[in-house]
TrEMBL record:
<feature type="compositionally biased region" description="Basic and acidic residues">
    <location>
        <begin position="27"/>
        <end position="38"/>
    </location>
</feature>
<dbReference type="GO" id="GO:0016020">
    <property type="term" value="C:membrane"/>
</dbReference>
<dbReference type="InterPro" id="IPR022676">
    <property type="entry name" value="NMT_N"/>
</dbReference>
<feature type="domain" description="Glycylpeptide N-tetradecanoyltransferase N-terminal">
    <location>
        <begin position="107"/>
        <end position="257"/>
    </location>
</feature>
<dbReference type="GO" id="GO:0004379">
    <property type="term" value="F:glycylpeptide N-tetradecanoyltransferase activity"/>
</dbReference>
<feature type="domain" description="Glycylpeptide N-tetradecanoyltransferase C-terminal">
    <location>
        <begin position="271"/>
        <end position="451"/>
    </location>
</feature>
<keyword id="KW-0963">Cytoplasm</keyword>
<keyword id="KW-0012">Acyltransferase</keyword>
<comment type="function">
    <text>Adds a myristoyl group to the N-terminal glycine residue of certain cellular proteins.</text>
</comment>
<keyword id="KW-0472">Membrane</keyword>
<feature type="region of interest" description="Disordered">
    <location>
        <begin position="1"/>
        <end position="42"/>
    </location>
</feature>
<dbReference type="InterPro" id="IPR000903">
    <property type="entry name" value="NMT"/>
</dbReference>
<feature type="compositionally biased region" description="Basic and acidic residues">
    <location>
        <begin position="1"/>
        <end position="13"/>
    </location>
</feature>
<keyword id="KW-0808">Transferase</keyword>
<keyword id="KW-0597">Phosphoprotein</keyword>
<dbReference type="Pfam" id="PF01233">
    <property type="entry name" value="NMT"/>
</dbReference>
<dbReference type="InterPro" id="IPR016181">
    <property type="entry name" value="Acyl_CoA_acyltransferase"/>
</dbReference>
Amino acid sequence: MTDLKSFDKKLTDGESGSLKKSKKKQKKEDAWRSEGPRDPFAMLDSLPEKKQQEIQKALHLFSVGQSLPKTLQDAKQHTYHFWDTQPVPKLGDSIMTQGPVAEAEISVRNEPYSLPQGFSWDTPDLSSPPVLRELCNLLNENYIEDDDNTIRFDFSLEYLQWALQPPNWLPQWHLGVRVEGNKKLVGFIAAVPAEVCIYETKKRLVQVKFLCVHKKLRLKRMTPVLIRELTRRVNQQGLYQAMYTAGTVLPTPLSSCSLWHRPLNPRKLIEVNFPGLRQNMSLQRALKFNRLPKVTKVQGLRCMIKEDAPGILSLLQENRSKFHLSPLLSLQEVEHWFLPRESGNDTYVVEQDGGTLTGVVSFYSISFKVLNHPVHTSLRAAYLFYVASTATELAELMEDTLVLAKSKGFDILCALDVMDNTSFLEKLKFTISDKRVHYYLYNWMCPLMSPDKVGLVLPN
Ligand SMILES: CC(C)(COP(=O)(O)OP(=O)(O)OC[C@H]1O[C@@H](n2cnc3c(N)ncnc32)[C@H](O)[C@@H]1OP(=O)(O)O)[C@@H](O)C(=O)NCCC(=O)NCCS
């Protein structure tokens, strides 16, 4: 791996002299730091994969002081060198007003932010299969793992295309960092266009996703440079707000939600020691406890087809008034996000006699690699994306969704406690995990909201 030699020298180029001075200290803090004499991770390179995993696990266990806060309480003791310079509300502020944190700049800088010598910006061309595979590998090898290091994301190429290429996506918002010498992709962040309703304000913004830095380049402050450059590219298109989620606490969560799990294949989950399962339950008991009906019950439930998009859009619009944060989708976007696709997502609708749609439920799928297991190598998880119903009880529709997901070979269904989901989570034997998903808005302040007022899920 190439050593990092210098930092983003031109970070403040194009800004006024006084601003330059006042940002000197911050520039230092944001530095994508130069390396010492030897990258310690290089020494691990020659070790077998299994050994590396053991060491990573040990590092994880002993790295409490380095990781970002997971709770609001801890976050209040943490110094955010980068985020404190960004237009986001400060932790602990009580916000009663609504609007941008900082006014839009009159001119957006034209030159990209500088990278240390030996690295360059790249916009990976996702229409090229080898490039898409390369991005997939970066994410699968470096994206979040569970704390136990037993499972790892295994995004498919189709999933990445679905998540990164919705209508009106822009290539320059797929932002990569490559090592100049060997062209290796070592960093990535992306934005896709979206429109949402925040309280009563309709806002065009971007959704930021797939922030990832290669494991060997962690803690060198590449993230602030990625975020600044993406922000510049988004600003260039006249957009100044973003939304994103993270498992860690940053300044400042708009809402903090919990992830719930519903086992569909308890035997396999127990065998792979899936984190967050109900403890103290024997296999027999777990099988009985999680048993599901063999067939679905809701009349008129069927797979979505393209012609259902207008009906789904109406259901979404009807549902919107219940939430403080909700999606504003075009017909084209409904088709993109909801139409079932192989190894991407599944959507079912409830059609009444006469053809009116009274319900929709959609989930997207993510596979995981199971590491170091003698029998199992993969795990399939379904993530609840959207559910709305005007006639059938949500719990009934969701029970059928569990039946369908199981019949399609999913091992687990995951859902956040957003929207009206608490009305069925416990009833349908979901268990709360210790994973939190915090929702954030960039450059927008408004009163914080409880999870049941969040009307959207942001796929990775
Ligand atoms: C998240 C990740 C990119 C952070 O990289 P890192 O090397 O630990 O951090 P860096 O040294 O580059 O940058 C540190 C800064 O980034 C911020 N940061 C870290 N994770 C962040 C996140 N998920 N979103 C936004 N900012 C984040 C930190 O708060 C810190 O800024 P601060 O000084 O204001 O606290 C890296 O850990 C990674 O790739 N993880 C796996 C993928 C992942 O979890 N992505 C995030 C999904 S939400």
